[in-house]
Amino acid sequence: MTIHEKDSSSTLKVLLIGSGAVGGFYGAHLAKAGAEVTLLCRSDHAVVQRQGIVITSIDPVTKAEKTLTFHPHRVIRHSDEYQEQADVILVALKALPEIDLPALLAPALPTNHPRILLLQNGIGVESPVANAFPHHEILSGLAFVCLNRVAPGTIHHLGYGRLTIGRYPMGSSPMAEQLAQRFQVSGIPVQISSQILRDRWQKLVWNAPFNPLSVLGQGATTHDILQCPATAQLAAEIMSEVIAIAQAEGYTLGPELIQKNLNDTERMMPYRTSMLMDYQSHRPMEIEAILGQPLRVAGARGVTAPRMATLYALLQLLNRPSTVPQP
Amino acid sequence: MTIHEKDSSSTLKVLLIGSGAVGGFYGAHLAKAGAEVTLLCRSDHAVVQRQGIVITSIDPVTKAEKTLTFHPHRVIRHSDEYQEQADVILVALKALPEIDLPALLAPALPTNHPRILLLQNGIGVESPVANAFPHHEILSGLAFVCLNRVAPGTIHHLGYGRLTIGRYPMGSSPMAEQLAQRFQVSGIPVQISSQILRDRWQKLVWNAPFNPLSVLGQGATTHDILQCPATAQLAAEIMSEVIAIAQAEGYTLGPELIQKNLNDTERMMPYRTSMLMDYQSHRPMEIEAILGQPLRVAGARGVTAPRMATLYALLQLLNRPSTVPQP
User: Which H, E and C letters describe A220-249, residue by residue?
Assistant: First the structure.
């Protein structure tokens, strides 16, 4: 299936920043639902300009494949090339300290004050953007999806896909409703949340153990981690640490989440986390969004999280210049 | 220099168990000092029988080499081949749970009740032997040495060499004095300790952080660990955990040990720990002696050591069958 977008004044106009797996996948589904999606992408510009972004969904059991090709309305290289009036700017970049998101967004922000949807992992991703653009409505989103960018402009979708979207820092938003509707039309289940920050901590309950353990376990899948009794217990203890930090921030997450996360992960296909895929592909890992920022919150709230701190230190050691990940 | 031992009734008779780096190095120095050293070794038997054990000391700065060749009095394959009256049995095997030391020693124990010197790393290595042979004097020793077994019967000595020897569980021993004298004659400085268990905890202050971090940091040297501020801090915190467990066991180690260990390590040449060398050579790691046993003591004493527990779990995850260490 191929989607070519046409310009239309009644169309939802989206500026998508990020041509990685998450950006390509969700941008494609907005386009499929009729949105006019302009893609800002740098490194993959030529490939995406030529072929679009090809998303192959692979059924984890039957291995049956289904392909969706996403041809953006326009593909631009720099945000100052965008002179249109976007309704929403969708940021689907990795949450990395070296990316200055306000500086990247500033030249692209039209005068109509589009909403900014941050579809990123981890804790603390919204505040730099919210502080830089106090007059813009910020939406925050979480993607529960298993994707792998196998080549520029080529994405494998290996499972799941649902989104949680809410207004930052809390509350309701007509734009969140409108986006949810678009996504749902294209087959992406969306949960609207009035407590998106709480939901970020809840997602972190899974990410904080499994992402670092997969890397430090040198390619450990979720099943490897759970089949080793010591790391299964460690994963549960790290989940407790996340819940304690969230509690100190005012977000109550029930302790039953721990067993639920372990059970759900046990039932999943053995899964290589996004941090592991980043590490093995020599891409930067989201260490700060997943561990550093939560640990800074813990420090400010007087909560100790020694297991998360240990993983955080070890990942920083792995990031030393001389380390070459195993193939 | 080559040493051929001659039988003599006045000679110190030693049965050396273990032809690895530690056994070869210290056995060679006892032989150099005139002891009659019979070597029990299995896998390297043929090579050692033919060529002896060749120890090349390499000056860490000048790279100047000095070679010592150790021809044991006899090289035997099984402990029941030993029918002599040893004065001392020197155990220089890795401290691994899969090695049943009492079963290995039993057939070799002559009727004269030789002393048993355990030259091994970690915590809890003596009690299985002491329990199995209550009528034998057990000596316990710690080697501060940088060795690398580069091939069967071939050892590189990269620095240091001193020993601490004491009677288990404490006190004095004429045999410890006699061994110290022999070693000192051959150039190995020896400290006699009346508190060898305390000394084991003191050595663990270094081993518990640096050995696991070097492996989990995927080949990190001591300098890599100290140059990364996060792991330098983590190393200090793990040292604190060891000191707290030792304190609960009744061994007081001053907190100034932490800074001293960090400073001394900073001044050393960048060093690959023995656990790292074991891991990269696909040999079993001393995870239990260095982390598991101390953590069991901590549990029994009601002390928490979450950072050590995190490293312990991660090393167990690395030990899963599917993991292949990077070359």
Answer: CCHHHHHHCHHHHHHHHHHHHHHHHHHHHC
Are A126 and A199 in contact, with CB atoms under 8 Å apart?
no
User: SS3 letters for A176-193?
Assistant: HHHHHHHHHHCCCCEEEE
Least Cα distance to B273 among B248, B296, B298, B290 occurs for B290
Threshold 0.90, pTM exceeds: yes
Distance from CA of B138 to the nearest CA of A (A): 33
How many of the other CB atoms lie within 10 Å of CB of A95? 20
pLDDT at position B113, please? Answer: 86
| CB contact (8 A) between residue B217 and residue A314 | yes
Q: What ipTM was assigned to the predicted interfaces of this complex?
A: 0.91
Asked whether the beta carbons of residue B318 and residue A230 sit closer than 8 angstroms, the reply is: no
Question: Does residue A203 carry a catalytic annotation?
Answer: yes
Domain parsing of chain A, residue ranges = 2-194, 198-318
- What are the distances in angstroms from CA B51 to CA A169, B2, B41, B46, B71? 74, 11, 14, 9, 8
Of the candidates B13, B32, B94, B203, the residue annotated as catalytic is B203
A5-48 confidence digits (pLDDT tens): 433 446 899 999 998 999 999 999 999 999 999 999 988 899 99
In tens, the pLDDT along B225-241 reads 999 999 999 999 999 99
Total residues found in chain B within this entry: 327
Considering CB atoms only, which of A216, A230, A322 is closest to B312? Answer: A230
User: Average per-residue pLDDT in chain A?
Assistant: 93
The residue of chain B with its CA nearest to that of A228 is B317
Contacts of A220 in chain B (CB under 8 A): 317, 320, 323
Q: What is the pLDDT of residue B42?
A: 86
Is residue A312 a contact partner of residue A291, using CB atoms and an 8 Å limit? yes
Q: What is the per-residue pLDDT for B60?
A: 78
Whether pLDDT at A213 is above 90: yes
Adjacent-strand bridge partners of B192: B165
- Which of A188 and B1 is assigned the larger pLDDT? A188
Q: Cα-flanking dihedrals φ and ψ of residue A184, to 5°?
A: -65, -35
CATH superfamily of A2-194: NAD(P)-binding Rossmann-like Domain (3.40.50.720)
CB contact under 8 A, B317 and A237: no
What is the CATH architecture assignment of B198-318? Orthogonal Bundle (1.10)
Q: pLDDT by residue (tens digit) across B189-216? A: 999 999 999 999 999 999 999 999 999 9
Answer yes or no: do A233 and B312 touch at CB < 8 A: no
From residue B192, alpha-carbon distances to B88, B113, B115, B139, B146 in Å are 16, 22, 16, 11, 20
